[in-house]
Amino acid sequence: MHLYIVRHGETDHNVQQRYAGSSDVPLNQNGLQQAEMLAEKLANIHFDVIASSPLARAYKTAETVSARHPEIPLIIMRDFAERGVGVFEGLTREEAKEQYPELFNRWCTRQLDDAPTGGETIRQFETRICSGLDELKTRYADKTVLLICHGFVSRIINKQLKGLSYEDMHGFTLNNCEVAEYEL
């Protein structure tokens, strides 16, 4: 499988450096323009399927690309929704530190088996992402797939496909509407 991974276009949460997590925040005006530029950039690449997280910021980005490829199926894959960060969602890091100092100070978003109250651990999240990757590999083994997802989703995928450690995975970041390419 030839896999293209794209992080969704920009949101106000990105600009304000807020935890978006599983919150369904929309693209902002710049994000909509980024999605259009992405669609233009990918216009001449053949995809067999376009897959998307169900969250609005990813799905709108995928829809924009899909409009240039109306013959290609656009599917929603819930496994690729962003990591839920519970009580931190919608907060900046400073607000999270102020409102939940004990959680914040133990670096719960960076621990394998810890998470903000109501959120997913990295281990739980990675299990979900791996399930989605397995489904893609099974359904589209010899195909070219475009997956529109999220920052932390792309980090876990990169970790899995490059065999990185948890410590090393944090060195990888996709910017909004940036593309990473993998051969599986």
Descriptive overview:
It is built from eight helices and five strands. By secondary structure, the chain is an alpha/beta fold. Strands 3-2-4-1-5 form a five-stranded mixed β-sheet, sandwiched between helices. The longest helix is centred in the C-terminal third of the chain and has 18 residues. It starts with a strand and ends with a strand. The model has no long low-confidence stretch (mean pLDDT 97).
Spatial extent as radius of gyration: 16 Å
Number of DSSP helical runs: 8
What is the tally of beta strands?
A: 5
What series of H and E elements makes up the topology?
A: EHHEHEHHHEHHE
Which characteristics define this entry?
single chain, 184 residues, alpha/beta, 8 helices
Brief account:
This protein has helices spanning 12-15, 29-42, 56-66, 93-99, 101-105, 122-139, 151-162, 166-169; strands at 2-7, 49-52, 74-76, 144-149, 179-183. The protein is an alpha/beta fold.
